[in-house]
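Input sequence (488 aa), recorded before submission:
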Amino acid sequence: MPLYVILVIVAALLAGCVIKYFLDKTKNIYEITKKEFIVGSVIISLVTAPITIFAGWSFAKANNLSFNEYWNGYEKTAQWEITTCSRDGPCVHEYSCDPYLVHVIDSYAYTDSDGNYHPEISHWETHYHDCPYTTEEWTFTIDTTLGSYTVAANNLPTNPDSHRWDDWVAVPTNISSGIPSFWAAAKQRIDSGKPGPVTKRMQYDNYILASDKSILNQYSDKIEQYTKDKLLPDVANSVHEFYYADKVYFVGYEPIDKKFWQTTLMYLNAALGTELQGDLHIVIVQNAKISAEKDAYITALKAYWSDPKVFGDDTVSKNAIIVVVGTEDGQTVSWARATTGMPLGNEYMLNQIQNKLPGTALTPEALIGIVNGEFYTTVNDKNETKLKVRGLHGNGILNRLLWGLDDTQTKFKRVSMTGNNADDNGSGFLYLADELEPSDGEKILFAIIGFGVSMLVWAGAILYGERIQKFTGRFRRNSIFGDQNTWR
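Predicted structure, token format:
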């Protein structure tokens, strides 16, 4: 960055020289004195250009560092808020009713400077009250370990006509009413003590993906061919139905019940995110070409998913665990490969996934496992209780491997990006911050802005500094420091 700043400073100073030369040559009443040029040069060199470019550089660095990842958690409570409606009250769905007159004064009476009296001018306007369509409105929210979600706000009651505010006013049919099915299902899960899964997109800093020069970035020469053959699915980067995300991918394999696969993985991820800060993605493939080059495929998949040029801020995240499962008969796992969103860490777990999965029945129960959640409470030092959720583990092979239930060494450990926290694994990758640079387009933009801000210094010197003013056919030099008795 120093050379970049120097070039902008030199350009600004040269521009100042050109402007001064032109003003001196044309004997303009505006000018830049030698004193002003020296002061302006110092300001440009030490303040305007460096600070402007540094600010832009810092903004670009922060922007380039920011990526999105999935956080996973559980539902906690389902709330149903009933608002009692009244005329001009708190409800949202209302109509104009009960007209009344309002006296509006257009101008008050007054006497002008000539002693003429002007009477008040006013008129009457018809105003209306706001009456609700129904006697109450309902709002449904779900509180989760990842925040609160409003499923429906200000719904009319079920069978709105039976809750009319005025028997003579019909309720519009286009206003949502009743209990939302999504909320009702969540309420049932929570009341039964088996909260459902929740996922949310959050921002984080990734020094590896932001650094174009890092040798830790994944590379593969197979991506072009695989994408041409449509063998590389796009990485999941969205949420549907408030807090669901589909993270099971199918390549050449058509399961009987895709939804059951997605739901089963969501439940596992709820526990994985809550307890181990992980996020599992499973790719199930049934393709002879991929099976013939298993290692090349998962390398290409990770490189593809990790490319900001393809997915922008939605590249596969640092907390991701990627498992590719191959099948030949569509009934059992023939082979498996695994990797993570980080360039290192969890090597033993990845090796065991590769070794343990072949021969497993290709079903959600056997491969992933049925993982439910259960509520429990904790008590802090102030004797305050807090509701929490934890996973109840099943017998799925990935479930047991990721938590190290049969071998503690296979337990997933999230590798830290910064290494700043006491419970982080690894020393982090903050050293890559020195490699981060804005794009060429951003550099040009910052140079233009830095140059433009520096030009304001010369503009200030011209407009507000010392100048030559015409006075009775002669010239007098005025200064922001006071008039000088200099005649010429």
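Checked by second reader. The CA atoms of residues 239 and 245 lie 5 Å apart.
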